[in-house]
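SAMPLE LOG
Freezer: B-3
Tube label: C17
Construct: single chain, 152 aa
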Amino acid sequence: MVSSVFRGSMVVHIVLHTRSFPSDGEWEAFVSERAALLDSDGAGSLRGLVVSDGGAPTSRQRTLYRELSGRVTVPTAQVTSSRLALGIAAAMGWVNPALKSFAPRHFERALRYLGVPQEEWPPLGDHLRGELERLPVDALFAINTLALRAAR
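STRUCTURE (predicted):
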């Protein structure tokens, strides 16, 4: 798992998962990064984008996230075709009802849901392509070849 931040008209906290579950250290780093973003930017301009091949937080990690988030709701789009990741997202939806899941072929719908302006799609696409060097996520390759190319 890796996370990064894209800053455009809003702040998009991006998380990439392979098929593996994140380690506790990776998850704790993500939760700390999310807390820092909430402190500096506030929940109003923060969005989440999760791209997963099936990896997702464990029950213990979801508890840690729930403790952090309290009642803060961050609009988040999960992009995956993994049934396991979809099921875990449904469980996380109890904590964050603004979490919606999308198939990789519907990436443009995910960006619209998050409110990312269309003129920011190309720089976001460049950011995501750069993330592929850090962590090769199959779902991101699918996005890269379909929706991001169309967005150009």
